[in-house]
Amino acid sequence: MPRADEIREGQRLTWAGLSASWEKWDSVIMRQLGPVSVAMIECLNIHEDQEHLDIASGTGEPGLSIAKLSPKGRVVLTDLSAQMLAVAARRADAQGITNIETKVCSADDLPFGDATFDSVSVRFGYMFFPDMQTATAEFARVLKPGGRLCASVWTRPEANPWTQIAMEAISTEVDLAPPDPHRPHMFRCATPNTVSALYEATGLHDISEWDVGVELVADSPEMYWQMISEHVSLAAATLQQVDEQSRMRIRATAIAKVRAFEKNGKVRVPGVARCIVGTQ
Ligand SMILES: C[S@@+](CC[C@H](N)C(=O)[O-])C[C@H]1O[C@@H](n2cnc3c(N)ncnc32)[C@H](O)[C@@H]1O
Q1: Helix or strand run (H / E) with residue 212
Q2: Which positions ≥6 away from 248 have C-beta within 8 Å?
Q3: Whether the predicted pLDDT of 179 surpasses 90
Q4: Which tens digits make up the pLDDT trace of 115-137?
Q5: pLDDT tens string 208-240
Q6: Which secondary structure element, helix H or strand E, spans residue 246, and what is its range?
Q7: Ligand 1 binding residues, C-beta < 6 A
Q8: Which residues does 59 contact at the CB level (< 8 Å), separation at least 6?
Q9: Cα–Cα distance between 59 and 166 in angstroms, integer?
Q10: Which CATH number does 4-156+184-215+272-279 carry?
């Protein structure tokens, strides 16, 4: 079993390195993942004076959208990576959002008192936590009685060609080891009920999960490849291990495959996320 501090350090370094790319591709990422934020927010019962905690906020979603719906409330954006949160703070400034705070901390060790928040969100963070059960217990601890927790994760790779095309192209040049279930991986929570079981074990009730479709829209196959290779953690990390010639062959393979998704002058590649809600 890998050590928790080793996983946290790896994640800190990974996301510090990816933060500039997430800022660069912000509008494409936000458009792709927007439907997931909408689905999560719908089940969180956000009021104008909500005390909300966003975990693994990265560049700020869904925390910033919740802050806009809660002008008399407060949203705390937390993440392991100071660099990702710095992007979130710049996005908040650009949108004139002032009712937020940022805090660098790990999901499994929250610096907040018991029963502090009305709601907690975790968009695409769960799969990166060293100990997902400890993290879930922390979310339940800081929720007020009756407060809601909503998370989203990716479903299986085959339902997510937007990333799978790139990973299959990479696998033509690199031996990709099968993912270790104890280590962070984009599809670590893809099996149905993975997160529901964590909620249940923590004593949350009214648990349900459902799938939400997304679509990555790029102006061209070349733009698709540039974006994916720069901001998807697994793709970016693996591409660093290969030489320039391999990289060019991988790029050509991915671009050829993604052409199947060209429509009306755009590339539109689908994916499926899963949302999981529970009540404290
Ligand atoms: C895919 S990004 C998601 C960002 C944002 N919620 C979104 O959906 O756009 C994953 C984020 O999880 C954060 N992360 C990884 N491990 C973490 C941990 N142990 N505690 C808190 N955040 C963590 C990373 O730093 C990164 O910002």
Answers
A1: strand 205-218
A2: none
A3: no
A4: 999 999 999 999 999 999 999 99
A5: 999 999 999 999 999 999 999 999 888 888 888
A6: helix 244-258
A7: 8, 11, 15, 33, 56-59, 61, 79-81, 84, 106-107, 123-125, 128-129
A8: 19, 22, 23, 26, 29, 84, 87, 88, 91
A9: 23
A10: 3.40.50.150
> Which residue among 79, 121, 162 is best mutated to probe the pocket of ligand 1, counting the most ligand atoms within 8 A of its Cβ?
79
Which whole number is the average pLDDT over 27-56?
A: 97
pLDDT for 140: 98
As given in the structure block, the two tokens for residue 48 are 């104008």
Residues 6+ apart with CB under 8 A from 34: none
| HSE of 215, CA atoms in CB hemisphere, 13 A | 9
Q: Are the beta carbons of 196 and 204 closer than 8 angstroms? A: no
* pLDDT attached to residue 181: 86
∠39-43-49 over CA atoms, to 5°? 115
**Ligand 1 mean position, distance from CA 265 (Å):** 33
| DSSP H helices in 104-219 | 132-142, 161-171, 194-202
d(CA 186, CA 235): 11
Burial of 113 (0-12, 13-18, 19+ CB in 10 A): exposed
Q: By CB neighbour count within 10 A (0-12 exposed, 13-18 middle, 19+ buried), where does 175 fall? A: exposed
Name the token pair of 157.
């790779």
> Which of these, 127, 108, 124, lies nearest to 185 by C-alpha position?
127
Work out which ligand 1 atom sits closest to the CA atom of 129.
19
